[in-house]
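Build the 3D complex.
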Amino acid sequence: METLLAIVIGVLYAAGLYLMMRRSIVKLVLGLGLIGHAANLLIFVTGRVQRGSSAVIPPDQTVLVAPFPDPVPQALILTAIVIGFGTQAFALVLLKRAYQAVKTDDMDAMNTTDR
Amino acid sequence: MAQSEITQADSQSPLMAWAMRGGIGWVLSILPLSLTLYFASLLPTITSGTVLRVSYTWIPSLGVDFAFIVDGLSLTFVLLVLGIGTLVVLYAGGYMAGDRQIGRFYLYLFLFMGAMVGLVLADNLITLFVFWELTSISSYLLIGYKHAYYSSRSSALQALLITGAGGLALLAGLVLLGIAAETQTISELGSRHELIVNSGLYAPILILVLIGAFTKSAQFPFQFWLPGAMAAPTPVSAYLHSATMVKAGVFLLARLNPALGDTPAWQITLTVFGAITMALGAYLAVSQTDLKRILAFTTVSSLGTLVMLIGIGGEHGIVAMMVFLIVHSLYKGCLFMVAGNIDHETGSRDVSILSGLRREMPITFGAAALAALSMAGLPPLLGFVGKELIYESTLDARFAAAAVTTVAVASNILMIVAAGMVAVRPFLPTGTTRHSTPRHPHEPPISMWLGPAVLATLSAVFGLFVVQVMQPIVTQGAAAILGEAVEVKLKLLPTSITGYFLLSVLTIALGIVSYLYARPALMQAGKATRGALEDGFVNGFTDLVNNTQAFARWITRALQSGYLRRYVLITIGAVVSVASAALLTRADLSAIRLFDTPLFLWETATILVILAGVALVLRARSRLTAIAGLGTVGFGITLIFFFFGAPDLVMTQFSVETLSVLLFILILYRLPIFTTISHRYSRLRDGIVAGLAGLLMTMITLLTIAGEELKPLTPFYAEASYVEARGRNVVNVILVDFRGIDTMGEITVLGIASLGIYLLLTLRLAPADGQAEAEDSTGKEQL
Amino acid sequence: MNLVVFLPLFVPFFTGIIGLLLWGKPQAQRVVSLLGGIGLTLVGANLLLTVIQQGIQVTYIGDWVAPFGITLVADLLSAIMVFVAGMMTLSTVIYAIVTLDAPRERNGFHVLLHFMLFGVIGAFLTGDIFNLFVWYEVMLISSFVLLVMGGERAQLEGGIKYVTLNLIASALFLSAVGILYGVVGTLNMAHLAILVPQVEQQGLITTLAILFLFAFGIKSALFPVFFWLPASYHTPPIAVTVIFSALLTKVGIYSLIRVFTLIFTTDTAFTHTVLLIIAALTMILGVLGAVAQFEMRRLLSFHIISQIGYLLMGLALFTPLSLAATVFFLVHVIFAKSALFLVGGIIHHMTGTYDLKKLGGFYRVSPVLSVLFFIPAMSLAGIPPLSGFWAKYALVRAGLENNQPWIVAAALGVSILTMFSMTKIWAEAFLKEADDGKLRENVPALQSIPAALRLPMLAPIIVLAVLMVVMGVAAEPFFALSLQTAEQLLSRTEYVQAVLGVQL
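Done.
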């Protein structure tokens, strides 16, 4: 099962990066989204997945008893999801503004600052 | 309307007027004069064989001491630098009277003087280098003094680049020398000569140090910057580019002789390059028409002579070098100032139109005549003593004595011709047209003829009293260079007919004959070879600079193409290649276990849905479809989190994904369908790179989970979550308590992102900063 | 709670919040911002002095001891960086108050600046690798907004490239942290220092090191991932460019130093060779980029890249002397670069252009400006007795002592090209007049700036120039401190002892 997940992670990275190399700004942002998902999944899987229980202490106990999934990667992913959302939203609006300024979504047209 | 840089203020106090007229030179010359006298007072001590050392700690962490040494060599140089400096400061006051920026000129001049004094007195390799670089910089500032002219700026830059590049090579060489000798104190190097030569670093040290010395002292093939430096005001040429700065390389070779000398590599290289330079300079000098250029090329030649003499080495060579050093400084400084006088008074430096100035400028003529005689090597001037010593050394040279002597004789013959051209011809009357110069000449003020007169007189006095004046200091100087005590006997007149005396006679005779009859032929020869020997080097250098710039432009344009997709491709490509190299060469991939745990139906289905979502994003023709695909992926991941016991993640991922999809739709709403189609080739290429990246991440993931499961932190959270932190949802407790500051940062990111979005939508400024007021726009309309 | 370490993090945060609360009152925001800059400088100085006198300072956030909570650690390197960051904040605030256009200043420039500093200081002080990611994001998002606020087309174009490549770096960083946790099981840097060498899969660790190298490398503008910098740094107002050039890439280098001295030290044959090659290429291609430019800001932006190469060289050589050189160089280059950008800003303020072809005459008209340019320029080119020379000398010495002649040759070659570049600005903007010999008309002098603005505009540059001279002429205390820092970094025992209380 983990193998499949690892493959999914790879596919997500590949697809995301492929999209980021396209000429359309929109595909760029879509690619960023995919990479974000890939990274989150990566943290999840490498933190070792565990079925059937969650990292919540039952009312009748005072400590977590094995087996339980590692709560640390989950916390990290949560933070990453939120941060990713913030930056993604900003990137989207930036994209829109850039489109309004350049009148095309072709990134190749946006090369004036380099030359 | 162009303003002239040389203007007179309309109303000035009499003091200002005097200062502007050249009086400032008198006042400022007091400083170098007093320093000269101070160092002269050390002569008795040094000539008795004592060596003075002083050292202050400067940067011990780097092995750099502010250390100085006064021995025969450094004292000679110091007296030359400060003595001629005094005269130059005085001279400049008169020459540049009325120049508005004369304050800056003197600032740079004194900066140079200080740096040069520091250089020759330094006893620590790095301290010496510090002053070395400072002389390059002050030279740059002085050559480019007439900064409005492109030729000044470019000549200054040329000199800076060449001496600067040489300086960098020198730095490496000196550091290596310090490593090989295990000390950075120069006076200790001599005792470690064996250590240095046998260290295995000798060859690189030698090459690097020689590059440094050769660039500074205009040796072949770096000689071409010196004639270019004549764009500087003449006081600068007289000081830096004849008597002092260009001799720094020679000084360095002399200073490092105890450490690096006495090997065949040293001797042959110096002799060969020195001789070539000597010949080349002399040859090119006699076909010039500009006074300063003649002097520049003869300086090149003389520097070559000095280097050659160090190469010849031994007692003869070194003593000859010491004497000729002084000889040359005296007459060259004088002749440059004479050239400056002529230029200042007549407005021209062209030897073909100058003549008969003897009548209007008698004092200048007198000085010039004496200097010319010294340059030509006629007794009883010091130049004669120098010439004799040179021939004595070349005849005794260990390598190729005959060849070297021949070259020396030929060069000296040409030097006599040059001496005549510079110091005789402009002054003697000829039958040709007079008054073809722009201005009618008369004797310049005393500040401008005192310098040449003093230097010329000294050439005579030092020659007549060579035993009393020169012998003591030359003895100590040679001792310092050779690293051992020597006995030196100088004499003015020969006591017997020796080989070198005959050569001197021959040189003088042939020289005078050449001056009188061979000049036209020499002129023609010079013109014919100008392309190769003169312009060739300069053009070669300019081409190098231009080609470097062209290369820089080409490579920058290639790399910084402006296409984001190319940047991303290169970035990903780089990461993937290096990381894969590490993974494949160093990791044990056999540890990967592929099919350990069983598959579950719902999980597999979810994964297929996710993959379908990816496919949708990749292949969508409309934006909405692509967004739908992205959403599918996100919600699929939500399910994965659900299956694997991460309820908080489920909630967060679900809500964020929903918001994200909504945001995408809202913002991309009015954009047209995907239209840009990229090349098949680029899609293939990008696909491969992206695919490899994905493969890499998969491999890393598999390798990680195949490894040992280390969880040093988890037990603590499991136990402390409720007991200490009072929370049952461990993930939440981690987020808000154990790792609360992460969450604080996360919230800050959200806050700033919102601020940023607000500003993007509302603040629209025209390209001229801030001229347009911020437009008030409702966000929705814009979207 | 160890206040000494905590305050430098708190001050910019507090300043930013108050600035937000004072939205719409630009004058008040200015005062707060200025006080914040002064405050940060003072607490930074206090931190540095404390660390010098009392050793590494540690505080456990929320009183959760390491490695379970997040720890703030100030060793010499962190303290030096915090102090320098404070000084640069103050310079930028002063300069922005005087020169920044009203719309940007009214719309949150000061707030964003201090929040960006919040991220920067957090990055310098954190002892937790995921926490480092969070601070990077804070810093990044603030810099995104600072870069594009105003919405000029150039800003947007440059902004997209900047945002994209930096978000890729973030994703790479996040992935690497995730994998690191998966392999080792901890996020605390001191704990990682102990556990990483004990992991069985060292090949995987090396691969991870490479991922971190590139993640920080993109941020530091190394070759071949530096493209975002020349594409974007010259588009916003100069006040933004100054603080960017002073701090952002330096956080990347700081992180590289931190992880490669503390955590990834087991396979230096691979990792540090890669670093060395990248350093050489970065140096060379950066300076070539500068040589090709004729616009001041672009020229200086490429030089940032070139100087980063030097910094990396010291890390790659991995000896006490070379790391000391890097630390010294770090401080020197922040000062020199900022001063040069500020001078460029003044020139732009007076003439409205950065284009060297259109400038000229300043040498004649303004000796003060000429000196204020010449000193940082010569320091950058490595001319003694200024600070840049000792930095370069130490690197050359370290390289030669360690038998690496090629990188030393590269470093020296780049040095002469840097000199070429600096003299280009000098010749074009200062020395050149009009056509040959004739003087240029209408060259504005510093007097054209109103007196109230003149001193605040010049003051930061004057201070920086003086610092460069002092660091050059009296280099010993600074270099001795750098050596101490390097030794502390290389030995790691003091760090681990301070954070975890155990021996390495």
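The mean pLDDT of chain A is 91.
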